């Protein structure tokens, strides 16, 4: 979605309506092309400032940097699933990627949402999009992380 609305409500509405990307019209040409390519490759692209404000609101914060402390309580599997939710994958796609049943993925996501203190999958996706690469063990698509045996 290319928009002039720079607020968290518009971002949440767009994501809930199925948007994989959300950028502001103030974006530079090269950045817009990069955003389109990102979404075209199946990943998500959210305007950083609007996403940060939404994260703050979802956490009940009114100012400051979003906290990722809740991520430390996640299991390795939940971190993997959070990263895949952040990429916009469905439960079925996550199950195929991780070689798990869709029902198992649903159970993991339920626990994941509870641990993060959110009610909706889109809220978890926004959290995943705001996590710096490698923070709290969250792996983004295409990166490798050592596995425990």
How does this model look, in words?
The protein is mainly α and 149 residues long. It has two domains: 2-58, Rossmann fold; 69-137, Arc Repressor Mutant, subunit A. It is built from seven helices and three strands, in the order βαβαβααααα. A three-stranded parallel beta sheet has the order 1-2-3. Strand 2, helix 2 (29-40) and strand 3 form a beta-alpha-beta unit. Helix 3 (48-58) packs across helix 7 (121-130) and helix 5 packs across helix 6 (102-116). It is globular.
CATH topology of the largest domain: Arc Repressor Mutant, subunit A
Highest-level CATH class of the largest domain: Mainly Alpha
Rg (CA only): 15 Å
What percent strand?
Answer: 5-15%
- Report the biggest beta sheet as strand number plus sense, adding barrel if it closes: 3 strands, parallel
CATH architecture of the largest domain: Orthogonal Bundle
Name the strands of the widest sheet in spatial order: 1-2-3
List keywords for this structure.
Arc Repressor Mutant, subunit A, disordered C terminus, 2 domains, Rossmann fold, 3-stranded parallel β-sheet, 149 residues, single chain, mainly alpha, 3 strands
């Amino acid at each position: 979605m290319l928009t002039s609305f720079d607020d968290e409500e518009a971002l949440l509405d767009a994501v809930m309506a199925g948007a994989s990307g959300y950028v502001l019209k103030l974006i530079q040409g090269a950045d817009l092309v990069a955003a389109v390519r990102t979404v075209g490759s199946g990943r998500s692209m959210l305007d950083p400032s609007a996403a940060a404000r939404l994260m703050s609101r979802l956490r009940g914060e009114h100012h400051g940097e979003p906290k990722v402390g809740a991520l430390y309580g996640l299991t390795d599997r939940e971190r993997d699933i959070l990263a895949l939710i952040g990429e916009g994958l469905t439960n079925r796609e996550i199950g195929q990627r991780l070689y798990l049943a869709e029902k198992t993925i649903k159970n993991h996501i339920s626990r994941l949402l509870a641990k993060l203190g959110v009610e909706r999958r889109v809220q978890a996706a926004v959290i995943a999009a705001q996590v710096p690469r490698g923070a709290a063990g969250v792996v983004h698509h295409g990166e490798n992380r050592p596995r425990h045996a």
